[in-house]
């Protein structure tokens, strides 16, 4: 099995070591709050594996993939068949090409991002997609062509290249061993990883809106199952302070512990606070409740909410209130 390398050629190269962080930054960042890419990949001329018939439509989610978690920067993608693909024109373009702005692609290179910057600020980024490679649009594990090379998934490759365009480098080429779409080698990963997101947030802060988790389907309630609910006190906390979520059983089970899972949502990013215990809490046999302590680690620029959502399980019934909200104040 051969791997294809996604290569970055920067206008000038940076080796930028970060301490205790696996992501690696290129150095320059955007100061604009919105950066728009012109998509000029064109029509596929066939139906791709994910059902798209346009490379541009298949590519749009890749540009937008970084938005949900970033604070001060948002990306936009215009389908614009007439957009030029050339570096130094001030237009951020993504298109197929047989060269990267006149330079040949290296062997096995799927795409190259060229960026321009001045005074530490990005001014332009263009993604040149190698039109000599095999392309499709699909999710899931890598698929391989008859030549044993991976078939380029336009979406995951462009999530990677757009990662370069916002300022991320290859962790694996800077001594880091981490699950990241920013690694230099294309892999079964087709979405941003937690480390990729942390890298984007190191440059642009934490996005305001964290997506609310989709509730898992609940099993049919058994009336004999324990019922759990959640409350929190105090309802606000600031940096250095804590609040206690209390998960309560409606009826004590003297014979067995009850482990209750939970997830967090709300406008506060996960780096703003810690949770102990994280992810789930066990109510001991004979006890009626257990606590999760939220400690505020950072001062937000404005008030944020952290919402505990009790997870469903075959071992208990989620009763009301099933959520509890704390406001993290400045
Ligand atoms: Zn790369």
Task: Provide tags for this entry.
10% helix, 6-stranded mixed sheet, disordered N terminus, 330 residues, Immunoglobulin-like, Collagenase (Catalytic Domain), mainly beta, binds zinc ion
Write out the strand line-up for the largest beta sheet, numbering strands in chain order: 1-5-6-4-2-3
Helical content (DSSP H or I, runs of 4+): 10-25%
The fourth-level CATH homologous superfamily of the largest domain is Collagenase (Catalytic Domain)
The rough form would be described as elongated
- Count the DSSP helices: 3
CATH class wording of the largest domain: Alpha Beta
Structural class category: mainly beta
Q: Tell me about the biggest sheet? A: 6 strands, mixed
- Please mark out the parts with pLDDT under 50 across 5 or more consecutive residues, or reply none: 1-20
Task: State the CATH architecture of the largest domain.
Answer: 3-Layer(aba) Sandwich
Distance between the termini: 52 Å
**Rg (CA only):** 23 Å
In this entry the ligands are: zinc ion
Question: How many β-strands, per DSSP?
Answer: 18
Task: Give an overview of the whole structure.
A hairpin with a 2-residue loop joins β5 (111-118) and β6. This protein folds into two domains: 7-204, Collagenase (Catalytic Domain), CATH 3.40.390; 227-328, CalX-beta domain (Immunoglobulin-like, Sandwich), CATH 2.60.40. With 330 residues, it is mainly beta. It is built from three helices and 18 strands. The strands form four sheets. It has a six-stranded mixed beta sheet with strand order 1-5-6-4-2-3, covered by helices on one side. The chain has a five-stranded mixed beta sheet with strand order 13-15-11-9-17, with no helix packed on it. A five-stranded mixed beta sheet has the order 10-18-16-12-14, with no helix packed on it. Bound molecules: zinc ion. The site of zinc ion has 6 residues, from α2.
